[in-house]
C-alpha cells in the first residue's frame, strides 16, 4: 500500500500547469530568460516546479529549432547545427519528464524512495489499483506542447497580412486546440485524483534514449 500519500492540496492541478505554461509563453525573453514563480505553485512537492519549468523550456527551445531546421535557403552546416540542438533539447526534455514523475510518485507515496532514481523504481501500490499506461509527467509534457500550439495559433488569428479565410481557419483551429488542452487537463486531474484515492498508479519506465550515446549508437562510434 502507498505510504503517507500527499493531500490533494499539495499536488499540482492542470489549471495551475496551464496557467504556468501560458505565463512562460508570454514572458519577455522566454525561453532564454527566467520567469518569476507563480504563488499557486508554492505548495507543489519539492523539485516539481523546476522539473515542469525545465520541460517547458526545452519544448519551447525545440519549437524554435524545429522551425529553423526547416529552412530551405540555409547552409547545410546551419541545419546540422539545428539538428544537434534538437537532439540535445529532446534529451533534456525527456529527462525533465522523468523528474516530474519522480516528484509526483514520491509525493503520492507510490514508489519506494530509495529506488526512485534507479533504472527500475519499485512501485508501492494496492493490489486493486489499475496501472495507467501514460505517466503524469508525459501528460504535463503534452500540455506544454499544446500550450505552444495554442499560443502560436492565437498569434495567427491576430495577423494583419493575411486574408479573412486564413484568419477564420486559424480561429477554428485555435478553439479546437483549446478544447484539446481542457480535455487533457481533465484527464491529468482525474489520474492524480485516482492515484490519491488508491485507484490508479503509473510507473517510470525511463526513455533510454540511445541516439546520443556512443555505447548504443553505432553511427556515433564510427
**Side-by-side strand order of the widest sheet:** 1-2
Category by helix and strand content: mainly alpha
Order of helices and strands: HHHEHHEH
Total tally of structural domains:
1
Globally, the shape reads globular
Percent helix: 55-70%
Radius of gyration: 19 Å
| Whole-number mean pLDDT | 92
Largest sheet: 2 strands, parallel
Total strands: 2
The number of distinct helices, counting runs of at least 4 residues, comes to 6
Give the low-confidence spans. Answer: none
Strand residue content: under 5%
Can you walk through the features of this model?
- The protein is an all-alpha fold.
- The chain has one domain (8-221).
- It contains 6 helices and 2 strands.
- The protein has helices at 14-26, 48-69, 76-108, 136-157, 164-196, 218-221; strands spanning 130-131, 200-201.
- Strands 1-2 form a two-stranded parallel ribbon.
- Helix 1 (14-26) packs across helix 2, helix 1 (14-26) packs across helix 4 (136-157) and helix 3 (76-108) crosses helix 4 (136-157).
- It is globular.
- The termini are far apart.
Identify the notable features of this structure and list them briefly:
mainly alpha, 57% helix, 6 helices, globular, two-stranded parallel ribbon, 222 residues
Amino acid at each position: 500500500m502507498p505510504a503517507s500519500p500527499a493531500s490533494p492540496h499539495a499536488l499540482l492541478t492542470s489549471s495551475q500547469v496551464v496557467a504556468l505554461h501560458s505565463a512562460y509563453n508570454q514572458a519577455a525573453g522566454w525561453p532564454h530568460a527566467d520567469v518569476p514563480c507563480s504563488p499557486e505553485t508554492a505548495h507543489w512537492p519539492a523539485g516539481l516546479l523546476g522539473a515542469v519549468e525545465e520541460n517547458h523550456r526545452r519544448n519551447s527551445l525545440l519549437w524554435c529549432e524545429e522551425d529553423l531546421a526547416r529552412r530551405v535557403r540555409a547552409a547545410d552546416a546551419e541545419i546540422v547545427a539545428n539538428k544537434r540542438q534538437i537532439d540535445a533539447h529532446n534529451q533534456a526534455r525527456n529527462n525533465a519528464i522523468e523528474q516530474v514523475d519522480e516528484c509526483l510518485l514520491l509525493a503520492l507515496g507510490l514508489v519506494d524512495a530509495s529506488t526512485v532514481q534507479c533504472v527500475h523504481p519499485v512501485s508501492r501500490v494496492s493490489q486493486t489499483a489499475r496501472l495507467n499506461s501514460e505517466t503524469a509527467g508525459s501528460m504535463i509534457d503534452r500540455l506544454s506542447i499544446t500550450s505552444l500550439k495554442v499560443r502560436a495559433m492565437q498569434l495567427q488569428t491576430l495577423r494583419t497580412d493575411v486574408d479573412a479565410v486564413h484568419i477564420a481557419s486559424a480561429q477554428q483551429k485555435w478553439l479546437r486546440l483549446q478544447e484539446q488542452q481542457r480535455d487533457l487537463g481533465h484527464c491529468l486531474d482525474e489520474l492524480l485524483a485516482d492515484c490519491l484515492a488508491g485507484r490508479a498508479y503509473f510507473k517510470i519506465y525511463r526513455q533510454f534514449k540511445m541516439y546520443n550515446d556512443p555505447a548504443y549508437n553505432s553511427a556515433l562510434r564510427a
